[in-house]
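Working notes for the structural subgroup meeting. M.R. asked for a predicted model of this chain before we commit to crystallization trials. I am recording the input and output together here so anyone reviewing the notebook later can reproduce the run.

Input as submitted:
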Amino acid sequence: MRSSGFAQQPVVRVVPDPERPLPARQWPATVPAVGQLLRDGLDLPPGVTFLVGENGSGKSTLVEAVAVAYGLSPEGGSPYGHHSTRPSESPLPQAIRLQRGVGAARWGFFLRAETMHGWYTYLEEHPSRRDPRFHEMSHGESFLEVLETRFDGPGFYCLDEPEAALSFGSTLALLGVLHTLAAQGGQVLCATHSPVLAALPGATILEVGSWGLRETSWEDLELVQHWRSYLDDPRRYLRHIIAEE
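Returned structure, recorded in token form:
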């Protein structure tokens, strides 16, 4: 999934900033995955990297921090237009540095499911191109339109749980977009709960949890194992949640 036309990917490595350390007992350094990043740094390979883990594991915090350090708005969008409705990002972006790839493209985009409606409003208030009226589309339709108009060619793309707005078929369409991006020299960092997305051939998978960050395969993901067990026999799970009459 590499493009031979580019010597390096946009982000080669994420490292702690020694001039602006985050106290070890201060959130989010207390989150194991964040603590590991601040100790050891993190290499980001070319192509697509997925962060997969439970709620609260730190995957979205990591994606947000890398996106902001790259120059993207914490609430989503490109490097060329920042908007803010209510600042809620962690202090982690100020505590890290990015090692940029030599000769790499500078374009990027941060697609964040929970704040995209604010970005749509920003576009309406600051029109710079012939965009559709995203607010008049369904949540899933607007996401797919963003993918078609902003996810194109070399650059750095961050996504935070993009499957939240998408049907199964639309998730497969997103998977195709990510594959094409990687083939064209784009680099992707994506936090996800979706076993469909995480199955992208050639992608790097980092499982996020109480251990921190660890590289794994799709087959060995706890997420995949749980979904397989649930779909095989939902009653084994539901009997612990729904009282039998």
